[in-house]
Amino acid sequence: MKIVIAPDSFKGSVTSTSAALKIEEGIKKENSKIVTIKIPVADGGEGTVDSFLTFLHGEKVKVVAEDPLGREIMAEYGWVPEEKTAIIESASASGLPLLSDTELNPYKASTFGTGQLVKHALDQGAKKIIIGLGGSATVDAGTGFLQALGVAFLDKHYQILKGSGECLDKVHVIDLTGMDPRLNEVDITVASDVSNPLLGENGAVYVFGPQKGISDNALSVYEGSMERFAALVNQTVSKNEANTPGSGAAGGFGFSLLSFLNVRMRSGFELIAELSGLENLIKDADLVITGEGKLDLQSLNGKVPVGISRIAKKYNVPVVVFTGKFEGYPSELKQEGIHLVCPIVDEVMTLSQAMTTGEQLLEKTARRLINAIELGQKTQGGKALRNNKYDN
User: Fold this and answer.
1) 130: helix, coil or strand?
2) Is the dihedral of CA 274, 363, 352, 98 positive or negative?
3) Mean pLDDT by 10 residues, the chain (392 residues)
4) Beta carbons within 8 Å of 83's beta carbon, 6+ residues apart
5) N or C: which end of the chain has fewer CB within 10 A?
6) Helical H segments across the chain, by residue range
7) In what order do the strands lie in the sheet with 160-161?
């Protein structure tokens, strides 16, 4: 039997690379003869650097940068010297995991640190930069990022504002004269599987704001600030990207990247799939195991497990999803080619316990799955799993 192991990260608990490794260990402990192929996958958020470096064989560069609240931390990005390519996650310096629940403050939170990482990559001579958007603690529309790269945001008194959520309502002038000219000379790809626009009920504020600390009664006011900022950007660059899919990613970060820089928006999952040759690997497999921290109906909108299952379905390869939490019914995912959902928590425990024991839970779930498959093969007279057909 050949199994492709292609999980996303279990955010805040296990990276996609570690998840793939632990699932493989569980499989091998039950049946060492099973052939396994590990493909750590990411969608542009946490784990994107590790996924790309798995196939590009680069290195990690550590940089002192600001976290979302302006404190110095040691952040990192991926670097491929031969190709002078940098892979940067917004989550590394501007991510939610860098803050405690009590520290969430979208008004003060900034993407400045992510801009520092890009500046460092440019100083390294980067010719190509991949920016993964996902898992940020910010709703600053990328103002901090742009400030770190020389853009000035001025209030009505022409005083410089710090790029952050609270500056959106105060910006009167956007001065681009100091923007790093190297940004126009480098090939920038934005990796994100978020298709939300900047504004509206499906936009950056209403969809992502609450998880980053915007209270329900403040959403409409914050949305108004974002609308005013978007209008000023449109006036400044004579370009309207507010409705472009992905402009709402990472708290509106996608909007500013699209508005001020010459970038290409790509699905993070599709980039990894192309780079790894994922489809060819799945085509020849007997089973695919994928996974992510939470699986629900929103996962149908471009999340990694569904992206993988849609590939596998073309070749009639069964897909199993490991998840920390499942909301919905398996029948709702069956049409996407997902045959089985396996919640990894196997006993009563707190969320904190589940998060800290994610690797062990994945290994144990893999072992149970192999036992179940072998039992099924015995009760079916050894009938190959691959011969099972979809019930469409």
Assistant:
1) strand
2) negative
3) 92 86 96 94 84 90 97 97 95 93 96 98 97 94 98 97 96 97 96 92 95 95 97 96 95 97 92 90 95 74 81 94 80 80 85 85 95 85 52 44
4) 56, 127, 128
5) C
6) 16-30, 48-56, 90-94, 112-123, 143-148, 219-237, 249-260, 268-276, 278-283, 304-314, 330-334, 351-356, 358-379
7) 160-161, 152-154, 173-175
Structural tokens at position 95: 């991510």
The values of phi and psi at residue 130, to 5°, are: -110, 120
Q: CATH number for the domain including 32?
A: 3.40.50.10350
Give me the count of residues in the chain: 392
Give the CA count within 13 Å in the CB-facing half-sphere of 281: 19
- Residue 320 CB contacts under 8 Å (≥ 6 apart), including other chains: 287, 288, 289, 290, 338, 339, 340, 341, 342, 369
Instruction: Kindly state whether residues 113 and 228 are assigned to the same domain.
Output: yes
Euclidean distance between CA atoms 53 and 42, whole angstroms: 12
Among 266, 290, 323, residue at a domain's last position = 266
- The sheet with strand 85-89 has its strands ordered as 59-66, 72-80, 85-89, 128-132, 187-191, 263-266
Report the alpha-carbon distance of residue 129 to residue 80 in Å, rounded.
10
Q: Give a yes or no: residue 43 inside a domain.
A: no
